[in-house]
Q: What sequence folds into this?
């Protein structure tokens, strides 16, 4: 096959690829609010397919074939007309035309053909040399980098490795993917198609929290699961072949941007709403202190040069796990573009249910604080009536018109302070009304932040006494917002204590328990309770409550405990385990293993819950299911230890 023929096919494919690019860009712009991040990315594969398919591959559906066939029909008709006229009118034969004129005309045509062929052959050689040069540079860079990576040390930090294992378990990945310390990459990246590894700067590891590491690892594992490294190599090859066409280069740069958004969406589908916010914060944090990013072929990093951080953060903020509303639109688009774009010009024509949804069928009492909405009420049994300030269970409800309450709060704030707001919420959304002392009158609960403080807020409560508002609580605490307010008799003295929870991290909250003392609120214990989710639990035979804490572990798994106040501190109340775990925790994990039967840690947590519920027979069955899966996390050893516990 001649080089000029290959170059001709490349040029034709590149021209059609440019047309497909324009079609895709127009459709993406018209339907940008209808296509989710995954579809925005997948539609670019039409361009890849178009550039890979040889130009000789024609289909009856090709738009260009229609034009070509019409052209052929016109040319044929014209030829017939000319021949007919020639015969009917007996036009002069070739012998009657002056030979000098014919020879001159033929020489001119032959010269034009020869010149075109000559320049086209020269262009073919230049194109081939360009391809060889670019490929040589890419392969050399990748080879040198590969040798450098082989000499780098592996991460041996136990906590970091554990986070990676948990992240792999979340995405159901059993492949061995080591963590390599490498300062050259600047940004955390996945490297290697055959033997993938996560590259990260050792200094960066020291600066990151465990939650931030988890976000990074999930992103890189998402690249692995979606085969993005392999796709990137295909894109590099196509860019090299079409190095002369800036439209193709522009298209693939946009595809890479959409790839990052699709990767983010893939990660978010495994995260809860609180974790999604933390994921976005991690992206912003990395973008702020990572600079001098170098392009390395064959890698996929969480932050890239020129990465559209703003667009990614907006997508994360607006992400929904089940965007099926417009599913018909992208399918129709793909069908239309396939008919237009995947065919050739003939040569002659030139992206889990939320926790709330999971627990609804079991009518669990578990409360799920929702970062995007109003503050948690503390009980799923709570029911509200329109325009009322109090619920049947006595839990918190925000008032519809709070301008006066906002002004009251501001009159108590220091000069350099402001009411805490988060996300798209306003000041009035963060001023809450609740009867904290059972006298039938609502108190005001809010939080404020001093201008110079970033990591702490002040929790404040106001009570109306004798017609005037009085401050009953003003305490500096860790966190960035109030997400739990409830009253319950925790110590059994017949009077309700006040439970105030603050969100201090993506999935972590901190609960303080206060008691009324001389019309002021004071902590009953200096030791706060950490939680991801909370539940207030009845203690049989006693007029007091216990607190069930759900602390996030992996995926949608939690470490659950039931705590009871013993007069000095909160301690685990194992006597309450059987009833609570049987009614609430076991049904939760039964639902999880039903939805994701191949995730090992859900079987482990189900078995552990069944043991605490007193159902050891069922626990042994769950353990066997987990052992048969052998996902690597939890390990076989951990399952066997649990088996010994269930066998006693």
A:
């Amino acid at each position: 096959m001649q080089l000029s023929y290959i170059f001709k096919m490349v040029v034709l494919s590149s021209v059609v690829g440019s047309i497909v690019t324009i079609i895709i860009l127009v459709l993406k712009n018209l339907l940008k609010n209808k296509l989710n991040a995954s579809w925005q990315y997948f539609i670019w594969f039409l361009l890849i397919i178009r550039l890979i398919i040889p130009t000789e591959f024609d289909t009856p559906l090709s738009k260009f074939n229609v034009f070509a066939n019409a052209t052929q029909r016109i040319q044929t008709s014209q030829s017939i007309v000319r021949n007919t006229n020639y015969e009917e009118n007996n036009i002069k034969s070739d012998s009657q035309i002056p030979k000098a004129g014919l020879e001159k005309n033929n020489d001119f045509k032959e010269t034009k053909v020869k010149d075109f062929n000559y320049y086209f052959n020269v262009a073919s050689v230049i194109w081939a040399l360009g391809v060889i040069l670019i490929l040589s540079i890419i392969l050399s860079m990748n080879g040198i980098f590969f040798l450098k990576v082989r000499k780098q040390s592996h991460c041996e930090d136990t906590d970091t490795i554990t986070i990676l294992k948990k992240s792999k378990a979340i995405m159901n990945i059993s492949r061995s993917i080591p963590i390599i310390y490498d300062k050259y990459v600047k940004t955390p990246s996945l490297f290697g198609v055959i033997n993938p590894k996560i590259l990260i700067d050792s200094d960066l590891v020291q600066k990151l929290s465990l939650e931030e590491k988890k976000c990074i690892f999930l992103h890189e594992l998402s690249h692995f699961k979606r085969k993005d490294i392999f796709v990137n190599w295909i894109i590099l090859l196509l860019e090299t072949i079409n190095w002369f066409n800036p439209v193709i280069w522009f298209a693939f740069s946009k595809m890479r941007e959409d790839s990052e958004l699709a990767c983010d969406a893939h990660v978010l589908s495994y995260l809860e709403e609180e974790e999604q916010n933390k994921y976005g914060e991690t992206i912003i944090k990395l973008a702020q202190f990572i600079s001098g990013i170098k392009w390395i072929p064959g890698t996929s990093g969480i932050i890239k040069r020129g990465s559209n951080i703003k667009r990614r953060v907006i997508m994360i903020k607006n992400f929904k796990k089940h965007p099926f509303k417009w599913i018909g639109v992208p399918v129709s688009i793909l069908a239309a573009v396939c008919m237009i774009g995947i065919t050739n010009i003939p040569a002659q024509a030139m992206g889990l249910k939320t926790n709330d949804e999971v627990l609804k069928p079991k009518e669990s009492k578990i409360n799920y604080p929702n970062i995007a909405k109003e503050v948690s009420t503390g009980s799923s049994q709570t029911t509200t009536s329109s325009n009322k300030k109090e619920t049947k269970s006595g839990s918190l409800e925000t008032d519809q018109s709070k301008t006066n309450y906002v002004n009251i709060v501001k009159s108590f704030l220091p000069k350099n302070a402001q009411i805490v707001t988060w996300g798209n919420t306003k000041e009035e959304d963060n001023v809450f009304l609740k009867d904290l002392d059972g006298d039938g009158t609502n108190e005001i609960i809010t939080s404020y932040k001093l201008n110079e403080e970033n990591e702490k807020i002040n929790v404040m409560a106001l009570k109306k006494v004798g017609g005037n508002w009085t401050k009953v609580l003003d305490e500096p605490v860790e966190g960035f917002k109030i997400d739990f307010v409830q009253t319950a008799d925790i110590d059994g003295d017949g009077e309700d204590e006040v439970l105030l929870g603050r969100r201090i991290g993506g999935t972590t909250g901190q609960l303080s328990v206060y008691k009324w003392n001389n019309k002021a609120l004071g902590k009953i214990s200096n030791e706060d309770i950490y939680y991801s989710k909370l539940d207030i639990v009845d203690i049989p035979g006693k007029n007091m409550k216990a607190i069930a804490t759900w602390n996030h572990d992996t995926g949608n798994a939690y470490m659950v405990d039931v705590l009871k106040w013993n007069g000095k501190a909160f301690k685990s109340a194992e006597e309450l385990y059987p009833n609570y775990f049987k009614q609430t925790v076991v049904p939760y994990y039964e639902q999880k293993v039903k939805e994701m039967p191949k995730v090992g840690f859900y079987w482990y947590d189900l078995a552990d819950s069944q043991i605490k519920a007193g159902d050891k027979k069922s626990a042994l069955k769950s353990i066997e299911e987990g052992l048969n899966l052998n996902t690597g996390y939890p390990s076989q050893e951990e399952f066997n230890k649990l088996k010994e516990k269930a066998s006693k």
Residues 56-110, 344-400 have pLDDT under 50 and may be disordered.
